[in-house]
Amino acid sequence: MTDNHSRKPKDAETHIGNHKLDPSTMMMGHGYDPALSEGSLKPPIFLTSTFVFERAADGKHFFEGITGKRPGGTDGLVYSRFNNPNQQILEERFKLWEGSEECLTFSSGMTAITTLFLAFVRPGDVIVHSGPLYAATESIIAKILSQFGIKYVDFPAGATREEIDAALATAKTMGRVSLIYLESPANPTNALVDVEAVVAARKAAFANELPPIAIDNTFLGPLWARPQDQGADISVYSLTKYAGGHSDLVAGGLTGSKALLDKVRAIRNTMGGIIDSNTAWMLMRSLETLELRMSRAGENAVKVCEFFKDHPKVETVGYLGFLEAGSRQKDIYDRHCLGAGSTFSLYLKGGEREAFAFLDALKIAKLAVSLGGTETLASAPAAMTHISVPEERRAALGISDNLVRISIGVEKAEDLIADFDHALNAI
Ligand code: PLP
User: What are the structural domains of the chain?
Assistant: First the structure.
């Protein structure tokens, strides 16, 4: 079976005359040819582990591509640990949001991140990363990769160019720096990383072989931030969040150049961890409404944060839309971000008692971790997602007992405000 699903799109598919189509339009049909599936308007779910070759020579040709014997990858469907039409169409579509050359999808965000690390770091190497990172990512680096002799140096997410230079200089004394790994905004501080400064610092620090810059863009991507525009090489996504958008699947993705992602693909082919066809299909459906969902959630967040800002029971709101004019964070925001997102930190007056009273009184917002779903979610990081973080580090990161983390969904903003008003009054 020839791999017609993942052929390079012709101009006629991406343009009307000189008019370039927007990704939001292309989510409906791009990368799928109904003629290959009995005219079915939507792609069927290809529930198969393996694909039939027309001729033995085709099988050989495809395997040469899969194994890298022939450069450029495979042009045929072989086996669902390597490729599957649903996964291929999904990847063709998701990469359009950042205009990336390539996309790879995985069984979870953490599988994407771990496979990325396995592709680029070797024993003795150093990873330079911004901090904090998502807790499981920190664990992979500090607790698992360290067992294989891989070292790391970190700098705070809001670091200046000088601080980034210093981290790179330290790292170079420890071994080969093979990956720069960022997460922006950081969870739950919302601090933004200056990707442009990291790119400049890398250029100054390394003469020849530049370590790739990968960035976890889960919180703002792909609608509100496109870090490859600032010079990052690979964007990392927990597709479980905004891309999936309905809190009903777990998946991960990477976007970037073909040259870099081919290295990751080689590990994925061997190890597994590729997205399954059913989840890929659900994600394709989610992508059709990605812009609608994220736009509505972003508009809701503005209204809800305005409500919280002046409420007497609220100490402060950590929301990217409220960054102080003239501050370094606002400068990064203006250079890097296309929107303030819909996930933010609410600091209530008081401590755990007040935070719990607020959470227990919510009627519409759900008391649950995660983010980026159609429904509004609220949780207490100090008591939940970050409970295993040592107390001093929690304090340094601003993860206090009065912090409530909120991810706004697509409900009616006025209903959410009524819910939050009622919950604040219940404290
Ligand atoms: N990156 C960030 C910023 C996250 O918030 C998460 C999950 O919460 C992950 C990565 C991991 O993704 P997954 O849960 O899909 O493995």
Answer: 11-83 (no CATH), 86-287 (3.40.640.10), 290-425 (3.90.1150.10)
